[in-house]
Amino acid sequence: MDKIILDVMGGDNAPAAIVEGAVRALKDDKRLYLIIAGREAEIKAELAKYKYDASRVEILDCPDVIGMNDVPTEAIKNKQASLTAAYWHLKKNDDVCGLVSAGSTGAIIAGGQLILGRIRGIKRAALCPAIPNVNGATLLCDCGANAECKPSMLCQFALLASAYAQAGFDKANPSVGLLNNGTEEHKGDPLRQETYKYLSQMQGINFVGNVEGRDINYGNVDVVIADGFSGNVALKSIEGCAKMILATMKKQFKSSPASLIGSLFMLGAIKRMKKGLDFDKYGGALLLGLKKVVIKSHGTSKPVTIANAIKNALSIYRNGLIPKVEEMLEKVDLDNLIPVEE
Amino acid sequence: MDKIILDVMGGDNAPAAIVEGAVRALKDDKRLYLIIAGREAEIKAELAKYKYDASRVEILDCPDVIGMNDVPTEAIKNKQASLTAAYWHLKKNDDVCGLVSAGSTGAIIAGGQLILGRIRGIKRAALCPAIPNVNGATLLCDCGANAECKPSMLCQFALLASAYAQAGFDKANPSVGLLNNGTEEHKGDPLRQETYKYLSQMQGINFVGNVEGRDINYGNVDVVIADGFSGNVALKSIEGCAKMILATMKKQFKSSPASLIGSLFMLGAIKRMKKGLDFDKYGGALLLGLKKVVIKSHGTSKPVTIANAIKNALSIYRNGLIPKVEEMLEKVDLDNLIPVEE
User: Fold this and answer.
1) Between the CA atoms of A242, B242, B235 and B157, what dihedral angle is there, to the nearest 10 degrees?
2) Nearest CA-CA distance, residue B97 and chain A, Å
3) What confidence category does residue A277 fall into, taking pLDDT thresholds of 50, 70 and 90?
4) Which of A55, A294, B113, B231 is least buried, going by the fewest C-beta atoms within 10 A?
5) Which of chain A's residues have a Cβ under 8 Å away from the Cβ of B268?
6) What is the 3-state secondary structure (H, E, C) of chain A?
7) How far is A130 from chain B (nearest CA, A)?
8) What local confidence, expressed as pLDDT, does residue A48 receive?
9) Over the stretch A83-130, which tens digit does the pLDDT of each residue have?
10) Where are the beta strands (DSSP E) in chain B?
11) Which of A183, A233, A270 to mutate to test the interface with B (most CBs of B within 10 A)?
């Protein structure tokens, strides 16, 4: 059995949609064992709605809930019977391999860094979503955990996301691009210029140079490295654009009898298109750099999103993400490559 | 007559598509007088293909061409008979009101700052495209002229883009948001936190707080302020997303006989949708902060893009963009608001 902790109290549709996602995941994977963290009575009431293999489920009663208005680090410290307890359970039990939550991003990051802890040698954890592109998905790392970055952090993100591309997407030698405001070598601010230099020299990283925002969806590279500020801007700009186009499409397709008839002929094509652009497919962003697999799902997660997040967490664990990172860290002697930073 | 200089040697389809755009613009606006800058023989050969009012056209022979591989500031200094000559003509003739070019962004910015010059009191010029949103367009300023910014620059961008929203989009009291990695007041790095404080205190600016990447396409605000690095990331991420979705749609619509029939019923709706999402509608990005109206069109500009850029330049000039900026600068005493920066 592979054990995953699922926080069911976070997210707009919690706990109902999250518990439904848990039941789906249990059906999909017979080697999955779920530790469902949250308010026990609410979890039991939701679980009672479904048939599931109760021998692969236990409940970790967490009466406290960390809300979107809580200050993350304070909430993680003060609300012990919450996501905090889930993180302690994850840390203390060797046979528990990962955690999935659709709760407050800040709290998930804070708990990951303060309780679970980072892989030895990793400076900062980074959020890494898989963004749909024309061929599959592009990994964008970091997209919000670190608003300010130093070159050594960006270099570590390249290493972490390369390990994720290997363990999660079966890419043997994932290509890595640095998000910049142009593709030429000299482009960008001093942070980008310095990072470019170090990435070019890093062993074990397939660095292909600077890339631009458009390359994320074009899928020209497997991994895009960014500071958390501009990565967040890119991710949310893409989200806004996709929503605008799909909303405009919907409106126009209903705008005349002809186009409404037309859209009926096209239901299959529209369904396939939406599937190709599915932001829920991977269930959320991986919080990279921690000692175990942690996935932050979107606040609006539906049951299928949660089931995908659990599936993804299992798969990444089974493909040995963490040992891969440790192995790469040993090979790449970053301390020797990058001078001490202020 | 309102005189505009059109550089026809820049852009992927130059000079043919640019000259065709010029002819279109002359037809659309009878008060337009065009000074066509570029290689005279090539311009004459292209013009000979069309009927147009020759009394409203003159040619400024510029045998030198600044290419995409030239270093912008060096090219502007060394290649005198090029965009450089066009900029000098713009500077020296009071009756010439603006310039349009689809050439090298770097050269357009360098020529604007080194030859034409900035409005008195403005620290830096900024690129400001109008990005389609669900209700119209959002102005994004800066999106690439300044990779590194200080708070005073971002505050000036807010002022410049607000003047553009008034002169170009008829918004009486345009709302302004600061691009950040979250909407809460404390969000972002020190640059964002400081800028937030000053924008909140600026007279004559309708600052509504932090916005996220998704708000650009949602159209929740009229103006989004960004440093040139993250603005560029946002713009290009949106471009990549839009292209990916339209390409996926096209592919899926041709994927089966049913969907092909369906798409025929929907031609009208698809056309209206594309029109709503038209990135060519405004012809390019305004280079704000200069003494006259300068528009940088996309390198891939088609004739209609160039005609739109000329139309947009005329309209902004006629609505008094530059006097509006000067008036706002006087009202907002930025030097008094923001302490001297390093």
Assistant:
1) -70
2) 30
3) low
4) A55
5) 255-256, 258-259
6) CEEEEEECCCCCCCCHHHHHHHHHHHHHCCCEEEEEEECHHHHHHHHCCCCCCHHHEEEEECCCCCCCCCCHHHHHHHCHHHHHHHHHHHHHCCCEEEEEECCCHHHHHHHHHHHHCECCCCCCCEEECEEECCCCEEEEECCCCCCCCCHHHHHHHHHHHHHHHHHHHCCCCCEEEEECCCCCCCCCCHHHHHHHHHHHHCCCCEEEEEECCHHHHHCCCCEEECCHHHHHHHHHHHHHHHHHHHHHHHHHHCCCHHHHHHHHHCHHHHHHHHHHCCCCCCCCEEEECECCEEEECCCCCCHHHHHHHHHHHHHHHHCCHHHHHHHHHHHCCHHHHCCCCC
7) 14
8) 97
9) 999 999 999 999 999 999 999 999 999 999 999 999 999 999 999 999
10) 2-7, 32-38, 57-61, 96-101, 126-128, 130-132, 137-141, 175-179, 206-211, 223-225, 285-288, 293-296
11) A233
Tens of pLDDT, residue by residue over B39-87, are: 999 999 999 999 999 999 999 999 999 988 889 999 999 999 999 999 9
pLDDT recorded at residue B279 = 66
pTM as predicted: 0.92
B266 vs A235, A240, A263: nearest CB: A263
Provide the chain A residues 273-302 that lie in CB contact (below 8 A) with chain B.
273, 276-277
Rama region for B38: left / alpha / beta (φ>0; ψ in -120 to 50; rest): left
Q: Which residues on chain A are in Cβ contact (under 8 Å) with B235? A: 213
- Selecting from A188, A215, A252 the residue whose C-beta is nearest the C-beta of B147 gives A188
Q: How far apart are alpha carbons A216 and A136 in whole angstroms?
A: 11
Q: pLDDT tens digits, residue range B1-32?
A: 999 999 999 999 899 999 999 999 999 999 99
A272: closest chain B residue by CA: B252
d(CA B248, CA A273): 6
Q: Do residues B252 and B173 make contact, with C-beta atoms less than 8 angstroms apart?
A: no
Of A202, A130, A199, nearest to A170 by C-alpha is: A130
Its ipTM equals 0.91
Among the partner-chain residues B242, B253, B269, the one whose CB lies closest to the CB of A256 is: B269
**pLDDT confidence bin for B276, thresholds 50/70/90:** low
pLDDT for B253:
73
- B212 inside 8 A of chain A by CB: yes
Q: Which DSSP category does B135 fall into?
A: S
Query: Cα-flanking dihedrals φ and ψ of residue A61, to 5°?
Result: -70, 120
